[in-house]
Design brief:
This protein is mainly alpha-helical. It is built from 3 helices and 2 strands, in the order αβαβα. It has one domain. About 45% of the residues lie in helices and about 10% in strands. The two termini are about 15 Å apart.
Length: about 100
């Protein structure tokens, strides 16, 4: 969908809520490496699709924690997303399917 929108000349903004640290290990050093690797992979892949780095946002919530955010952090996250929606005023918003089995999707 991103490639199709970019081919149509439409801007695309991508926001990652979680950092991906929980995918492979509980070791903090490995998790920190995974965070950096995933961020770079995201930037590279989206760059290939024509998304500008200035239109890619990382909210860096710990992987696997969205359902259990404390009230203050939940409100902060909602505010961040709301600000992005107000700034870009997208005609469409894409999110993962509600039946996706990953708890952060």
């Amino acid at each position: 969908m991103i490639a199709q929108k970019r081919e149509q000349g439409l801007s695309v903004v991508v926001t990652f809520l979680t950092d991906g640290r929980g995918s492979h290990s509980s070791d903090l050093n490995i998790q920190n490496q995974i965070i950096q690797i995933r961020r770079q992979e995201s930037l590279n892949a989206l760059g290939i699709l024509g998304v500008q780095p200035s239109e890619i946002y990382f909210l860096d919530k710990p992987d696997g924690t969205l359902a259990n955010l404390k009230a203050e952090e939940r409100e902060q996250t909602i505010k961040q997303i709301s600000e992005l929606l107000k700034r870009y005023q997208p005609g469409e918003v894409y999110v993962p399917h509600h039946k996706d089995c990953h708890k952060d999707h």
